[in-house]
Amino acid sequence: MNHSLSIKLVNISSNDVADGNVKLTLGLVWSIILHWQVKDVMKNVMEDLGQTNLERTLLNWCQLSTKGYEKVEISNFTTSWRDGLAFNALIHHYRPDLFNYKELLEKDSLYNLNHAFDVASYRLGIDKLLDAEVSQKKGHREPASRQTLVLELVPCTIQARFIMISAAPPTSA
Questions:
Q1: Domain named Calponin-homology (CH): which ranges (predicted)?
Q2: Closest Cα partner for 115 from 151, 140, 89?
Q3: Is 86 within 8 Å of 66 (Cβ atoms)?
Q4: Which of 15, 132, 153, 163 is most buried (CB neighbours < 10 A)?
Q5: Domain limits of the chain?
Q6: Which CATH code fits 52-157?
Q7: How far apart are alpha carbons 85 and 109 in whole angstroms?
Q8: With 70 as the cut, is the pLDDT of residue 47 above it?
Q9: 8 A C-beta contact, residue 113 and residue 87
């Protein structure tokens, strides 16, 4: 039985893995993570947005979730996240009970990044996947780590929505 999983592999072969090519092997691992985790976690969002490209779906979800947040304009998984406000807005959109977003507008990027990563870690149980000092550097263009952190936030947002719906007073008929 032949199944096509449509995982996009570019410039890597079994020889690269066997020869210990770290960069290409990590790229392969990221492709597999992106394919399966995004596909499972974002399948409903993909249907709602009419998207098939996984990275584009994740980016669109971030844009929709942070729409209207001051000083947040998400256009990619590199520079849009450098000041920490996008991470904080994404968390705040689904868990406004955790902190006051407007207070972060006066803070510097290092503070905002540390704040987002600490809230994600200590309040949402998400491992610290990124370092604030590295994330704010202009030359840091590693989108995979940001995408992974955002993917870790998705189940928390779904849980937050469920809690809000469950806590809502019943409507009378």
A1: 1-37, 52-162
A2: 89
A3: yes
A4: 153
A5: 52-157
A6: 1.10.418.10
A7: 8
A8: no
A9: yes
Tokens of 149: 């952190």
State the DSSP string of the chain: ----------S--HHHHHTT-HHHHHHHHHHHHIIIIIHHHSHHHHHHHT---HHHHHHHHHHHHHTT-TT----SSSGGGTTSHHHHHHHHHH-TTS--HHHHTTS-HHHHHHHHHHIIIIIT-----S-HHHHTSTT---HHHHHHHHHHHHHHHHHHHHHHHHHSPPPP-
**Token pair listed for 30:** 């990221």
Beta carbons of 59 and 76 less than 8 angstroms apart: yes
> Which comes out higher in pLDDT, residue 150 or 173?
150
pTM passes above 0.90 = no
Dihedral angle sign, alpha carbons of residues 82, 83, 84, 85: negative
Rounded Cα–Cα distance for residues 49 and 94 (Å): 19
Checking if the pLDDT of 96 tops 80, the result is yes
